[in-house]
């Protein structure tokens, strides 16, 4: 079973940058997508960005388009999220997730999350 571990969260001032990493380990029979989601207490988890393991197509939420960059190291099942021009509203717990092959793109494997706080 594939396991995901996020790292790289922390506190940064508005306008600053952070780079999140998601390392996958364990058995994987192939992936459809890997992506980043975020959640603020009391609100629903929201999509941030994703990359297809099939054709490398990239997807972003409108709220992060142009500021965040998702990338991958397919050989190591590792996902990254470069976050620039951070805003206070980006403050959230960020989760990495994977959609295995055969899942029709449904994210069924989740990491524990890493906290990002944007504050002056």
Characterize the structure shown.
It is a single chain. The chain has strands at 3-7, 10-12, 18-25, 31-39, 46-52, 58-60, 68-73, 78-83, 92-100, 109-110, 114-118. It has 120 residues and is mainly beta. Strands 2, 4, 5, 6, 9, 10 and 11 form a 7-stranded mixed β-sheet that branches. It has a 4-stranded antiparallel β-sheet with strand order 1-3-8-7, with no helix packed on it. The N and C termini lie far apart (40 Å). The model has no long low-confidence stretch (mean pLDDT 94).
What's the gist of this structure?
The protein is mainly β.
User: What percent strand?
Assistant: over 45%
What overall form do the CA principal axes indicate?
globular
Using the CA coordinates, give the radius of gyration.
Answer: 14 Å
For the biggest sheet, the summary is:
7 strands, mixed
Helix content: under 10%
Distance between the termini: 40 Å
Structural class: mainly beta
Can you count the helices?
0
What string, H for helix and E for strand, traces the elements in order?
Answer: EEEEEEEEEEE
According to DSSP, the number of beta strands is 11
Can you give the mean pLDDT? 94
Give the oligomeric state: single chain
The low-confidence runs, each spanning 5 or more residues with pLDDT under 50, are none
């Amino acid at each position: 079973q594939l396991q995901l571990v996020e790292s790289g969260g922390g506190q940064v001032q508005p306008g600053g940058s952070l780079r999140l990493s998601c390392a996958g380990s364990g058995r994987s029979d192939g992936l459809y997508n890997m992506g980043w989601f975020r959640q603020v207490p009391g609100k629903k988890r929201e999509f941030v960005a994703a990359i297809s393991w099939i054709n490398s197509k990239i997807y972003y939420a409108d709220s992060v388009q142009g500021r965040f960059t998702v990338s991958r190291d397919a050989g190591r099942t590792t996902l990254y999220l470069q976050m620039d021009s951070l805003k206070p509203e980006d403050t959230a717990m960020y989760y990495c997730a994977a959609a295995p092959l055969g899942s029709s793109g449904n994210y069924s494997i989740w990491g524990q999350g890493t906290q990002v706080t944007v504050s002056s």
